[in-house]
Amino acid sequence: MPRRRLDDVSSRSPTDQPDPLAPFSAPTRSWFGAAFAAATPAQRGAWEAIRGGGNALVVAPTGSGKTLAAFLWSLDTLAGSQPPPEPTRPRRVLYISPLKALGIDVERNLRAPLAGIRGAARRLGLPQPEIIVGVRSGDTPAAQRRGLGTHPPDILITTPESLFLMLTSAAREALRGVRTVIVDEVHAVAGSKRGAHLALSLERLDALLETPAQRIGLSATVRPVEEVARFLSGAAPVTVVRPPTTKTLEIAVVVPVEDMTRLGDPLTEAPPDGSAAAAPPRASIWPAVEERVLDLVLAHSSTIVFANSRRLAERLCARLNELYADRLAGSGAGASAAVSEPSPVSAGPQGGGSPARTAPAALLGAAGQGGGTAA
Q: Residue 125 needs a FRET pair 20 to 30 A away by CA distance; which of 38, 298, 310, 317 works?
């Protein structure tokens, strides 16, 4: 087996390439320049590695733009290419996510660059590209799955299990045009049985293609990098993009009441007598906590709240929505406004799920190992 080459560009200076957008087409440069102030170090390094056609592993923190970095080169290539002679074999991009919810978010997030590049091409008087995005998962209806096989999209978003099913059925013919494979959250599958299954599927995909597809791995945290790079590319060379980053933590200890010894109004009702009587009612800090959490939810565009258990997360979720409805009614908006306004809070397992996007939203998830933090 040939020796695998690992090229780490983490120590290269961003100034090695003064204009990282220079290799892109005019519509892509126009849209990116209008949407962002500048390219991040992760994007600079990723584009430098991707445009050469080799495999790349991009390790960068959340919010560094690595997903767009992986897609933008392919979007630019698709936008500037002619329609394929065989409609069933377009120059496709295959995006693999270990989570169905993440794949749905990526499909939604791709709408902005696709619309932006199309609009920029129109303003520049150039042909407007039509790039189709499709999703194939366990939730995809059968009719839509058949449509993906006969009219495959330019970008297919799927999961490791759905990719395996496609490779072992007649739908594999729709994968013959794949040129780029993006594996997101690669650390979540590397080193597991699921990862071994995905590695086998990737090799089966390469055996189906005329030339092996370019593989791009994305991760916010990887350790050890060499092992994950080997999982991603096998014996093929791989470039690791790992720009230096610094973590900034802002921690505040907040007490929602002024005096912990006075949690509420004094209880005036006398406790019941008798040996079977329950314990006397006590004032609770929870009403103050709920009000404070709701204040934070409404003051920010998105909020994640972790609780000790799923049951507590669901109860807190329901209580926050009740308080939100009470505030709407108390402000004079009336009951009709409370019904028409979207609920600001939704509960999700282990931090998963999708909160409302049209209003300040909060996502509640149970924290593992019995611990809990609030953000």
A: 38
Same domain, 28 and 165: yes
What phi and psi, each to the nearest 5 degrees, are found at residue 147? -65, -35
* Position 164 pLDDT exceeds 60: yes
Q: pLDDT band for position 375 (50/70/90)?
A: very low
344 domain residue, yes or no:
yes
Neighbours of 66 (CB within 10 A): 26
Q: Determine the Cα angle at 24 with ends 19 and 26, to 5°.
A: 100
CA distance 141 to 121: 34
| Residue whose token pair is 């293609």 | 209
Q: Are residues 221 and 291 in the same domain?
A: no
In the chain, % of residues over pLDDT 90 = 34
First to last CA, the chain: 49
Claim to verify: residue 193 and residue 311 sit in the same structural domain: no
Q: Could you give phi then psi for residue 354, rounded to 5 degrees? A: -135, 110
Point out the least confidently predicted range of 119-133, 159-173, 319-333.
Answer: 319-333
Domain of residue 28 covers: 6-241
Cα separation values, 318 from 297, 329, 335, Å? 14, 17, 17
Q: Where are the alpha helices (DSSP H) in 127-257?
A: 142-150, 160-167, 193-208, 225-233
On whether residue 260 sits in a domain, the answer given is no
The two three-digit tokens of residue 279, written as one number: 């314990």
The predicted-structure confidence for 250-278, as pLDDT tens digits, reads as follows 888 888 888 877 776 545 455 556 565 55
Structural domains in the chain (count): 2
Verify that 293 and 156 share a domain, yes or no: no
Among 225, 241, 257, identify where a domain stops: 241
151, containing H or E segment: none
Closest CA to 33 of 72, 83, 85, 90: 72
Cross-strand partners of 361: 302
Which of 183, 216, 241 is the endpoint of a domain? 241
In whole angstroms, what is the distance from residue 26 CA to residue 359 CA? 35
Please check whether residue 61 lies inside any domain of the structure: yes
Q: Is the pLDDT of residue 362 over 60?
A: no
